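Entry:
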Amino acid sequence: MAAGALKYRDPKKIAKIGRKVTEHLNSNPAVQWLESPHAQLYVCQNFLSDKDCDFLIDKINDNARPSTLYEGTEQEGYRTSFSCDVDPHDPEIQRINAAIADLLGIPLEYSEIIQGQRYEVGQEFKQHHDYFFVEQPYWMDEARNGGQRTWTAMAYLNVPEEGGATAFPTLDYAVEPRRGMLLIWNNMLPDGKPNINTLHAGTPVIKGTKYIITKWFRVNPWGKGPAAT
């Protein structure tokens, strides 16, 4: 790998982002730290209003398509949900986008646009990491598109009748959906390197339907190379 490519997964820069976000979240009384020595997880209850949740559910239902995996990583039955790419120019989407970025204290341009997901009965996303594996063929495209993912923010838009928890198997922990709740975690270790303990899964929905939105943050502005320093 070319030396220049290291800029797209710069551990020192990622560690600095991690420290700033941690300080920002810890100073917010509305944010709760889910205590674990192995990964940084937080929740913010009632982050989205009922109106916001209904709005986003409608958007997902109107634009849902089968979820995909990166080319070369496909596995049958691994990710069986539906996904939705929302309109980034919609004023309500822009407002929600900005609110998530503000909560984490990360400039909005370092984030991907919100993605919606719908899980019907039996659908799931098996164990995976949100950070990128730099040995995979997709990496250089993602390197040029903002580089490594740092933080993840996921909001639950409803509560399925049964199932659909977000499980972190190496932490022996599962987060049950709550309408309007935002779940946040750092995909990296304090030293800026990937944290394997952030392995997680969207467990199968047993009864009902589950709706969420996910927003990922990058080490550099999304869609661009390294920021000027």
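Residues 105 and 208 are 34 Å apart (CA to CA).
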